[in-house]
């Protein structure tokens, strides 16, 4: 494939960070770039499949981060509600 074409190559950096070590923003940004490369459709099948698999892993990583954040927010809201119910009686 012509290396002067955007999206040429396998879409993988020489030293790619393992997906499980990426923070949310890093995984999200790489996923956005992955989608852009795949949408160009300029890579061969094997390269596209490898990039697709990386994209799937990135999407799962983003979901893990979001699920964790959601759980933290729900726990904080539950604590706040419990504190409010306990604290409300003491103020009266």
Describe the structure.
The chain is mostly helical and 92 residues long. Helices cover 70% and strands 0% of the residues. It contains two helices and no strands. It is rod-shaped, with a radius of gyration of 21 Å. 13% of the residues are buried. Residues 1-5 have low confidence and may be disordered. This is Exodeoxyribonuclease 7 small subunit. It is an enzyme of class 3 (hydrolase). It catalyses: Exonucleolytic cleavage in either 5'- to 3'- or 3'- to 5'-direction to yield nucleoside 5'-phosphates. Keywords: Cytoplasm, Exonuclease, Hydrolase, Nuclease. Belongs to the XseB family.
The number of helical runs is 2
Beta strand count: 0
**Rg of Cα set:** 21 Å
Low-confidence stretches: 1-5
| Alpha-beta content class | mainly alpha
Main beta sheet strand tally, sense and closure? none
- The termini sit apart by 75 Å
Mean pLDDT: 85
- C-alpha geometry: rod-shaped
Order of helices and strands: HH
State the helicity in percent bands: 55-70%
Keywords: Cytoplasm, Exonuclease, Hydrolase, Nuclease
Subunit structure: Heterooligomer composed of large and small subunits.
Pfam family, one: Exonuc_VII_S
Protein name: Exodeoxyribonuclease 7 small subunit
Which helices and strands occur, and which strands form pairs?
Blueprint: H1 24-40, H2 45-91
Helix pairs in contact: 1-2
Summed up:
It is built from two helices and no strands. The chain has 92 residues and is mainly α.
